[in-house]
Amino acid sequence: MRWRSNLKLVYLGLAAGLLFSGHVVSAEVVAKAGGVAKTRQVGHDLKLPEPKEELLALNALGVSKPIMLVGDDALSTVDFSFKTLDIVNRLKLHLKYDYSAKLDGANSRLDVLVNGKQMASFPLSPEHAQGMEVDIPLDSSVLSEWNHLTFKVASHFAEGCDDPRAAKKWVRIYHRFSYLEASVIPLPLLNDLSLFPMPFFDRHDLTPVQAPFVFVEKPGLPALKAAGIMASWFGNLASWRGTGFSVSRGALPEGDAIVLATEGSQIGGWQVPRVEEGYAQVSIIEHPNNPANARLVLIVGRSEEDLVDAVTAITLGKVRLEGAKVTFSERSRVEARPELDAPNWLTTNHRVFLKDLLTPEEIVHKGVFVDPLNMILRLPFNMYSAEGRSLPVTLKLKASNGKRRLAQIEGKLNGVSFQTFQVKRVEGSELIEVQADFSVPANKMTGKDALSFSFLFQEEGTPECSSANIKYDEVRIDPNSYIDVSELPKFVAMPNLSYFAYTGYPFTRHAGLSETLVLVPDQFGDDEIASYLTILGHMGEKTGWPALQVELADFSHAEKSIDRDILVVGTAAHLQPLMARWGMRMPVNPEHNWQPFPWPVHPSGSWQWLVADDEGYTDRLNNWYALSMDLSRRLRYPAMLTEFESPLGKKRAAVVLIARDTVALRGAAQMIASYDLAHKIQGDVSLLEVDDYSIDSYRVTSAFSLGAMSYEERLKRMFWHNPWVSFVLIFLLALLLPEVLFNRLKDQANKRLE
Asked: What distances in angstroms separate CA 287 from CA 191, 250, 296, 709, 716, one per listed residue?
């Protein structure tokens, strides 16, 4: 980020130096540091905030289970950081651990390091093996932007064979009860756009991104589109952190906020400033109602269409943000991205080499035990995932050979083993070359998957009984190893809400949502806009690209964009006009217990007899009955997420999120954006109970397809999912075959008589 310019470093250095001496920072001193913009003032001085305490538990830093350090020279590293404008005044580590009682306390120890500098060392004596809790002061002067907390073990047995790889040499660190405790002083935010997207997003902050948006009382569709583009951008920035959006129309909230408005408009008695130059401007100012504690980022255009162009330039980095105000003179025109071209997804038209997925540190694996090769893969769901299909991975590597040799490579998908490769023994070489071909089951993938390869070494003869001359296991990954998805057919059977939950599909087929239409009701509330922003933030996180080409329209103009997938978000009261028109096409009626009858093929839908449902017609009838009974037993209607073929165009999908009130709608949108709940969203109807975070899913409507598939593949799917078709064909064949054989034999007999 640009905040680490020399100007900011001078300011932060001066502030930090005076902080530790207990002084108040003079405004004159700050001005001499380079003329930075004003910060919070008390009289003529800048009084810095009081220190605050922060706890960073190891489980909050991505450690999902206790850290096991097995063998001699074992180590494990946990990355951590503090907010960009936080100065760490004091830092300590509370550590809870236990270890094997068989270790020799005189020669075994646990070392704690921060950024490579040793902070503490503890002997592993048998009398304390049952468990220890210690507080370790850490030197905060070694901290940097990104920090590494390392645990390293030297372990030895008091007697017997001191095998460096012995399983009884272990140290366990409890991730739930070990934490970093820091005293930090948050520096006040400057009125400087080079810090943007702060204060809304800080890449060092592990908490969900919170971005409040402010509009005039009745914002137009272009203003809502501009907010949607920025929300999808925040979704990409937030990544695994998650996002939370709030909306205020016609009034300023108390805290930090992003204002999207045209020049001269009124928001709660406060007038939006005029655009001084160009077609739009962005500025950061002190909150007029809360100048000491909040900032407003103003994105102001001469028209609402100008807001879209300004936000596009900001999200694509087309304009350099610095100082308190930046104007926009040139407009950025961006072409729509091709299908399946999202930056976060694997390329689907050619091989993807591991050198493009791995860092240099991940290429070479060396140690007493070799760490697995871990990768995160993202694929669109229309990479055909029917039974028997697989994702080919060719893994090339060199491995150490000798008394200890690589014997087996195990592939795991999301922690579940799917294939093992046995490595043949090779004599007389210190390094052996291995090429292992794996077939990853595509139908087990979710759109964001953890693919790992574990390396098992075997030792022949007696093990080493000394760590003095230990030879480490080593694996060197060939950067030209590759994953190839180009041969997978691009086809998917719809509707299927799990695709939407996991990857935002079908809207994310084009990363900029260039084939997406959002229908906006004539009447809408703040929480309805916030829910729409949450869904677009969800899609931005999946694609890694802002929704630059998304289109918005009201209900009366929906038919003008028939060749688009449709997204609708709103309360039942505000969506009533649309539900009245689409009621017969939707798989669920949000106002009645008994739902529309699921015909085998909808009369006005796509007639695709050779596209098999994931569930047969009998199963869908049962689901229809179960859904109706489920709704009849509930005291009130839950939020509903449903997907069906668009009434405006065949081979297009419509996704509707509808709730009884705005609170349930906003909670349902957050549930959809939660990756932890994605596995519960399936079929074409999901009932979402916000109070207890429960989800019940059903499949009731007939299927339609997107993409291309051969008739041979279509027949295979039909027979696989609908066995009754096979029985009918066998029955007909049993009726016709005797007649055919009889006639053929009769003809042969007549020929002999002639």
From this structure: 11, 15, 6, 57, 63
